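Continuing the series of single-chain predictions for the mutant panel. This is the parent chain; the variants come on the following pages.
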Amino acid sequence: MFVSPDNDRPAFSLLTSHWLSMVGALLTTVAGCTWLLTLPSHLRDHATNPYIGILLFIALPIVS
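Parent structure:
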């Protein structure tokens, strides 16, 4: 299906026009927020609990 370019449509209407694009936008937003929340732990390069690495590098990427 060919969609003609329409520059007057806001980005929000493009993201909510189909369920698959809404799921993609949601996954991208969750992944970005998760990355921002775990960034300080990466920058400090010090974890008080050894299981934090399992959470940060295995569990969170599976979820997002």
